[in-house]
Amino acid sequence: MKHQDQIKKFIGFIIDRENYKFDVYLINPTNVHYKRVIVFTGAFASEEDELLPTSPLVKEKGELLPNSALLIDSSDLGELDFVIWYNLDLYPSGAVSPEMLSFSILKYPWNYKKKVVSLPILNKEGIRIDLKRRQNNKGIAKIVAEDKDTNKDVYV
């Protein structure tokens, strides 16, 4: 896998104030086919100098075709009272090991309107969020196995 292909993938974050919701897309403007996308997500808020985490959740999202986008999250705007974090495992066709990436959406995305750009593939307006390589070398399956608080019912 070329380093540049990993950098080209990004997140499209779209706020729809009219319908009081937001959507999060994984955008793949490369020629790489990912046979499986797994999302491990959670959130936290702060109250009186204390972090209040939500229960993490694992979602199997299916495949991500070349030059396409995959909706990985959608929720009402009230969820933006939290910092939402995401870990992604992307399995390229023919590979055994996933690309392990992460990103987060900050609480109350201030300056959203100033950061809006045209998102390729989707042909919609939103914010581009760059993906980062995860610092640990654990795939989501291993993280979930070690975490007693994760909702494993949706993990496939």
Name some characteristics of this structure.
3 helices; 11% helix; Immunoglobulin-like; six-stranded antiparallel beta sheet; five-stranded antiparallel beta sheet; mainly beta; 156 residues; globular
Notes on the protein architecture:
- By secondary structure, this protein is mostly beta strands.
- It starts with a helix and ends in a 10-residue tail after the last helix.
- Mean pLDDT is 86; it is low at 1-6.
- Strands 3, 4, 5, 7, 8 and 11 form a 6-stranded antiparallel β-sheet that branches.
- The longest helix has 7 residues, at 140-146.
- It has one domain (3-146): Immunoglobulin-like, CATH 2.60.40.2420.
- It is globular and about 45 Å long.
- It is built from 3 helices and 11 strands, in the order αββββββββαβββα.
- Strand 1 (10-16) and strand 2 (21-28) form a beta hairpin.
